[in-house]
C-alpha cells in the first residue's frame, strides 16, 4: 500500500513537470557598430552602439593573436562589451581576416560569456570592417538568444 502511495505521488509530480513547456527564447537579431581608434602606444580606444543589445558602451580587447604573412593576415581575439548605464557585459570571440589590397576585414564572432542581463546569452554572427586612417569601423550582425 505504501509503494502505491509513493508511486501515485511520483506520477503526479511527473505529470506536473511534464505539463510545463520548456522552450528556448527565439533568437533575436542584433547589430553592433564598433568604432576602433588605434593609439600610438599600441592600444586602442573602442566604443559601440547597438540594436538588440544595449544602446551604447565601451569595449576592451584582449587575448590578441595575429597569424599569417604575405597576402592574408588573420586576427584572433576576445572583446568585452560593457553597456553604458547598467555595466552589463558581453564577452565575444572574434576571428577576422585582412587580405592585402583590400580596405577592411571580414570574419565571425560568437558569445563566450556574459554578466547581468547577458548572463545566459548565446549567439554569434558575421563581421565586416572598413578601415580608416588610424582605425577601423566594424559592423557585427547576427542573432542572440537567452
Would you give the CATH topology? AOC barrel-like
Apparent shape: globular
Overall number of structural domains? 1
Q: Gap between N and C termini, in Å?
A: 45 Å
Q: Indicate the low-confidence ranges by residue numbers.
A: 1-22
Q: What is the residue-averaged pLDDT?
A: 85
CATH architecture: Beta Barrel
Helix content: 10-25%
Counting DSSP H or I runs of 4 or more residues, the number of helices is 1
Which class in CATH terms?
Mainly Beta
Helix-strand pattern, N to C? Answer: HEEEEEEEE
Structural class: mainly beta
Q: Say which CATH homologous superfamily is assigned.
A: SO1590-like
How many beta strands in the DSSP annotation? 8
- Major sheet details: 8 strands, antiparallel, barrel
Cα Rg: 22 Å
Walk across the major sheet and give the strand order.
1-2-3-4-5-6-7-8
Strand content: over 45%
